[in-house]
Structure formats: structure tokens, C-alpha cells
Specification:
alpha+beta; 2 domains; four-stranded antiparallel sheet; 16 helices; 37% helix; globular
Length: 528
């Protein structure tokens, strides 16, 4: 059953204009402890509002930082080109020997040549150079006009025979040559944005195929890029034993230089990747020829940097005779503590900068893949990224606070934050209490009888012929014929249009941890 009333009509009270400020003050007033002190330093670090630095300032800083990284990349390209083969990259290890080992290791992972299936990628729902995000469903990209760079077009022409259902004769599909990708920024922290690039459609299609192939190859060698929990678990272990270091790199994906990729990858692989990447980035209408190999937004950047960092870490471990666990997830690296300083030197020589604020070598603290640990204690903070002005945002923050307050293994929540959580709960209509999923922002997690939840309006449609081509592409290598893949529906959520929807399960949720007042309620045998 769905209520016909808008969400605003069922809200018992409006949110105070200074609710975010009040919440910040309450959090900062919490009694000091390792966990709360860390929360206080972090939870507002990514906050952006009209009172913080304006968008144009954050964007300008981000672009300036990106261009500075490009200057470093140019220096790295020159350095790698002119390094003498006998230079000791490590004690008693010649540069040529080190590079040769890395080349052989990468070849053992991805092979000498790339198979055709590595070029058969997919479309995502993200924006491209030809389409804004609001008009970029995967099915739509199989029809009409698509952008591609000149260097990629020759490779694209070889794929026509591999995809006759889509690119066969008579198909309404046109390509347009563009110079490269287009830079944009998104909010990152209070004082600076993050730079990414929108790729040409068909470049991205092939890039995603290569990225998927790298991902499969790395998994066969113990690096699972589908599971961040591995790094988080190792970070916790390192915080207890002090035998593992966690390293974080600054602007890592933007620091993979063209010279490094040319030096390490087999020639055929390098030639293909160089052809399908964007060699030029358009910044506010101005063309910039890249010293980096690929940027955030490229379909293989994450997998390529993971491959390179894994290779460098394995090479350092080999030449230093270090044993122990190595793990890589993008620019999050974990290695035995004894080889850390050698690895840092090697990374810097090959053009990467270590983020000293987020890298942990000594002491009881470790951080990796969003997991923060102090001597085994999970101190991972939550973040308030913008003013709390809507009910879903308020519920989301209240649920995050509840998750943060859990004391592992005790079945209870930190009583220190109970008063703050109850204060937030008071702004949420009681019909929205009783949720169980702390990642869901449309129902408050609490020990109450569930009644309703917020529901976004979903506009559904069909992608027509494009959906058929999308289905062909999504299922060409499917092994299990009973594994259903639906691509015909095109769904778009409308977060601005919310309604109340009754929940089917009205049983009080079985929560892993409770506040004291909830424990008392449970003891009384009442969940209402």
C-alpha cells in the first residue's frame, strides 16, 4: 500500500535550520576516548556548504593540483627514460634487473598479448563526452551518436565482426571523432574538489573490457578487486601486531605516467592501451596533452594501477627477501613492515607520492579501504558531507551514528551517544522507526515495531532496440543459461519525489546491538 500524501505532510515537525551545527556541537562534547577523539577530527573534514570555500575555489584548487601532478609526471617520464641501467634502485639491485623482473611478473599475470575478448567491454550509466548522466543509460549508448578518439577508431573497426548483432549492417549507429576526454570536478573535502574525466563513449567501452580482464587476471594471483574487506581485515591485523604497514598514495591514478606503463607492459598490451586511452584532456575548452597514462574516469585506470602497485610491491619483496602478506586495492597498499621504507623509495622513484597523513607504518593505528583501526579497535568514523536539510539525510546520519556506536562483541551500543541518537530520533516520524539496515537511509534503525518507510518515485521505461543490444553484450560469455539478465527496463529514481510505503514485515527487528533503553524495552517484552 502506498500513501497518496507527500512526505512533507506526514512529518510532525520541520528540521531546525541549525540542526547540523547542533549535531556537530553535541558530537564534539562527547567524553574523550580513542574512538571519539578520532571521530571529532574526521567527521566534518569533508563537509561542504555555502559557508565553506565556494565551489569555484574548490574546483580551481583541484585543477591546479591536477596540473601540478602532470608536471611531476613529465619529470617522471624523463627520469625513467634516462635512468642508467646500473643505477641501484635498491641496495645491490640494478635498475635494469628490477625492471626486467617487473616485466616478467606482469607478463605472467596478463600474458604477452591481449585476447580479443579483453576488448569487448560494456557501457555504464555514467556520463560520457556525448551524454550527460541524466541521459546516459547503458541501453541508450548502443544507439545514435557515440564519441571516439582517432587512435581508438582503428581498434574499434576490428570489433565489428565480433559484435554483428549490434554493429551489423543497417544498424543506426554513428561515430564522431573527438580529441579526448573532458575534465570535471566533484566535491571531495571542505577545501578542494576531486578531478575526474568524462571519456568518449567507445573508448570507455573498450577500456572497461580491458579493466575487467585485468581484474580477472589479478584475482587468479590473489588480488581480489571485488572485496575491500580483505584490506580492512589486514589493516586491523596490522594495528594489533605492528607487523604490517598500510600505505596510501596521493593522486595515485593521476600519477601513473606514460613512461611507466611503456616500461613495464608487454609491447602489444602497451600499444592497445595507448590507443584506447585519452591522450588529450579538454579543460574548460583548452586541450592538454597528458603526461599521465590515464585519469579517474578511464575504464581500466583502477585495475591498471592495482596491477602496477602489486608488481612493484612483489618486486621489492623479492629483491629484499621479505616474506609476508602483500595486498593491493587500487592505491591502498599493505605490506610487511620490514620492507616499507624500500617500497616507499621505489614508489617515489617511479613517480608516486606517499600520503603521510593516511599511511601507517609504526604505532597502533592502521587504515585501509575505509577501515580505521586502533590496536584492533574499529574506530572508523562517519562523515557529514553537507547540511542536514532533508528527512532521508537525517535518517542516514542517525543510522551511521548508531553503526559507529556499536561495541563489537558486546551486543550493546555506546551509552555515551545514546542521548544524541535519541535527539535525532525525535525528528523522525514514528511511522519510520523500526528499520534493520543501517545502510538504508529511508527507515530509522531502532528496536520498534516497523510500520512504513520512505520510497523514491521510480520512473520505468523500456530502452527499445538498445536494450536488446545491451542484453547481447551482457550475456555473450554467460556460462549458465539459467542465470537471468534483465536489460530491457530503464529505471530512473526521483529522490525529489518521495512517498510513504507500508512495510510487509511488521516484526520488531532482530538487531545485533541495542541502546540501553532498547535493552530495557526488550526485557519488558514490548517492541511497540
Amino acid at each position: 500500500m502506498r500513501s497518496k500524501r507527500p512526505l512533507a505532510q506526514i512529518s510532525a515537525m520541520a528540521l531546525p535550520n541549525d540542526l547540523t551545527l547542533q549535531l556537530e556541537q553535541k558530537v564534539r562534547s562527547l567524553r574523550s576516548s580513542v574512538k571519539t577523539d578520532y571521530l571529532k577530527t574526521e567527521f566534518m573534514s569533508k563537509f561542504v556548504s555555502p559557508d565553506t570555500d565556494p565551489a569555484i575555489t574548490r574546483r580551481t584548487r583541484a585543477i591546479f593540483k591536477w596540473l601540478c601532478t602532470e608536471m611531476e609526471n613529465a619529470a617522471t617520464n624523463d627520469r625513467l627514460l634516462t635512468t642508467h641501467g646500473e643505477y641501484n634502485i635498491l641496495p645491490r639491485v640494478a635498475f635494469d634487473s628490477f625492471v626486467g623482473w617487473c616485466r616478467d611478473f606482469i607478463r605472467s599475470i596478463i600474458g604477452d598479448t591481449l585476447p580479443v575478448e579483453a576488448l569487448l567491454g560494456s557501457f555504464s550509466g555514467g556520463a560520457s563526452t556525448s551524454r550527460p548522466r541524466t541521459k546516459s543509460s547503458p541501453s541508450s549508448k548502443y544507439l545514435g551518436k557515440a564519441h571516439i578518439t582517432q587512435t581508438c577508431s582503428s581498434i574499434w573497426s576490428t570489433l565489428v565482426d565480433e559484435m554483428p548483432g549490434w554493429l551489423g549492417e543497417g544498424h543506426d549507429f554513428q561515430t564522431e571523432i573527438v580529441v579526448g576526454n573532458v575534465l570535471f570536478t566533484v566535491p571531495k573535502k571542505t577545501d578542494i574538489d576531486r578531478v575526474a574525466c568524462k571519456e568518449p563513449d567507445l573508448n570507455m567501452f573498450i577500456q572497461k573490457g580491458i579493466g575487467s580482464y585485468f581484474r580477472k587476471c589479478l584475482r587468479r594471483h590473489g588480488i581480489n578487486l571485488n572485496d575491500q574487506a580483505i584490506n580492512r581485515s589486514l589493516a586491523r591485523e596490522g594495528s594489533i601486531t605492528d607487523e604490517l604497514s598500510t600505505l596510501d598514495l596521493s593522486s595515485a591514478s593521476d600519477s601513473v605516467s606514460e613512461g611507466l606503463v611503456a616500461l613495464f607492459l608487454p609491447e602489444t598490451w602497451y600499444t592497445h592501451l595507448d590507443a584506447v586511452r585519452s591522450q588529450v584532456t579538454v579543460i574548460d575548452g583548452e586541450e592538454h596533452r597528458n603526461e599521465m597514462f590515464s585519469s579517474m574516469g578511464n575504464g581500466f585506470t583502477f585495475e591498471l594501477e592495482s596491477l602496477l602497485f602489486f608488481t612493484l610491491a612483489k618486486a621489492v619483496a623479492y629483491f629484499t627477501g621479505t616474506r609476508g602478506r602483500l595486498s593491493v586495492y587500487g592505491d591502498d597498499l599493505i605490506c610487511p613492515k620490514g620492507m616499507t621504507h624500500h617500497l616507499i623509495f621505489v614508489l617515489q622513484y617511479f613517480g608516486f607520492s606517499i600520503n603521510l597523513d593516511k599511511s601507517c607504518i609504526d604505532g597502533p593505528f592502521r587504515e585501509s579501504c575505509g577501515g580505521h583501526y586502533h590496536d584492533g579497535l574499529d574506530v572508523t568514523p562517519f562523515y557529514i558531507r553537507e547540511p542536514i536539510t532533508t528527512l532521508p539525510h537525517l535518517i542516514d546520519i542517525a543510522n551511521k551514528l548508531r553503526k559507529w556506536a556499536e561495541v563489537k562483541g558486546l551486543g550493546c551500543l555506546d551509552p555515551e551517544v545514546e542521548e544524541i541518537w535519541l535527539w535525532l530520533k525525535g525528528f523522525v516520524p514514528s511511522v519510520l522507526w523500526g528499520g534493520s539496515d543501517m545502510e538504508f537511509k529511508y527507515q530509522l534503525v531502532s528496536y520498534d515495531t516497523p510500520h512504513s518507510r520512505i520510497s523514491e518515485k521510480i520512473e520505468r521505461g523500456y530502452g527499445g532496440t538498445g536494450s536488446y543490444y545491451h542484453w547481447l553484450n551482457a550475456t555473450w560469455d554467460r556460462m549458465n543459461l539459467f542465470d537471468g539478465v534483465e536489460t530491457s527496463r530503464v529505471s530512473k529514481s526521483r529522490p525529489s519525489k518521495l512517498r510513504i510505503k507500508r512495510v510487509r514485515n511488521t516484526a520488531v527487528p532482530q538487531l545485533s546491538a541495542l541502546f540501553l533503553h532498547e535493552i530495557e524495552k526488550m526485557a519488558e517484552g514490548s517492541g511497540g
